[in-house]
């Protein structure tokens, strides 16, 4: 048993020292904010009407479901989290919280969020939320993450479901428009996370996580980032082509997609030294802005009556 694992085992045997902030950390607030935002866009774009109070409750359920997934992820991954600089301060590997607490917290929130969403919205949205939680925890965290370098590609679907859940909460079904929103996030996820993986490949190697740079090398990772970016850039324009994004969205999606692609090309070309790290860091940072700008523009157009359409 490694020293890190011994330290974790010792920490688990001690009484819980978890504070409110530790339970908040289990929810992965930054990830949750993205889930809430994209789900809100799905709800606003969906045809039909939902009472604001019901809509707020439905959005809260989606947020809690996302937080529950994060808690269960941290429960399962405590051993490898302890080995990585980026994650070793999390409540469970740091010894501030017992694993059982994280498991119970995540399970209660998972079941509660699905049941309440069923009661306030419909069974279709509740079923989608339940499947999203299952996919993230079981398919990605427990199975794919430690087994294949394609973990982010397949597992990324979990982060792409929220707009579909939001859409289904309003309409009771899944439409082509919500599938397009799903696909944008799905194809955005690999270049976003692989850019980070290029910067943290040492951490992943130490933890035994088969991220693409560790398994296939940095050169192949840069090539895959470029391929997915080439697919993502035109896909981001599809809402405008289909008509549920206005002229403003068309301009924003074309410009931001072109910049995303240029940064991906730079990551592909820069192979060594500080320039390579800078290129990966810039793509990672811009990828967050890219997704936010696309969905914010869709939300703004829908809220303001299709400005620029």
Largest sheet: none
CATH homologous superfamily descriptor of the largest domain: UbiA prenyltransferase
Beta strands, count: 0
Report how far the terminal alpha carbons are from each other: 62 Å
Indicate the CATH class of the largest domain: Mainly Alpha
CATH topology of the largest domain: Tetracycline Repressor, domain 2
Helix content: over 70%
Give Rg in angstroms: 20 Å
Shape: flat
List the domain count as a whole number.
2
Instruction: Please state the average pLDDT score.
Output: 91
Low-confidence stretches: 1-13
> What is the count of DSSP helices, taking H or I runs of 4+ residues?
17
Give the name of the CATH architecture of the largest domain: Orthogonal Bundle
Pairing-aware structural class of the strands and helices? mainly alpha
User: What is the H-and-E element order?
Assistant: HHHHHHHHHHHHHHHHH
Would you write up a description of this structure?
- This protein has two domains: 14-174, Tetracycline Repressor, domain 2, CATH 1.10.357.140; 184-309.
- It has 17 helices and no strands.
- It is an all-alpha fold.
- It starts with a helix and ends in a 6-residue tail after the last helix.
- Belongs to the UbiA prenyltransferase family. Protoheme IX farnesyltransferase subfamily.
- GO terms for molecular function: protoheme IX farnesyltransferase activity.
- Keywords: Cell membrane, Heme biosynthesis, Membrane, Transferase, Transmembrane, Transmembrane helix.
- It is a multi-pass membrane protein.
